[in-house]
Amino acid sequence: MNMGKEDKSKGEATEKISALNEIFEDVISDATDLIKDLRWSVKTYLLFGLVLICFGISEIAFAAEVMQERYYIPLFIAGVMFFAGAVQIYNYFRLGKKYARLLRVQDEFGKT
Known about the structure:
Elements (H helix, E strand, L loop, with lengths): L1 H28 L1 H32 L1 H5 L4 H26 L1 H12 L1
Helix pairs in contact: 2-4
């Protein structure tokens, strides 16, 4: 009876390994495209971070007259945009550092 349980667990393990092998084969075959998509995704954090900071600056510039009348809502909106932009830029550097090795390996393979 104990042998039946071992055979069953070995069969389940074999099925799991087979399924994982299929997944890894797909990932390996699409690795180049996956890394290119990852590189672009990381770069978009920088782009949108800079765009948000520019929108924050323009919000202050265009609302300067309103702020003189002590309406600080545009200043709050600009502050939120600056903060969101800073978070996006931080994520760019964080993810760039996290995936630097992977992107470097892809660059080396791309040269050959």
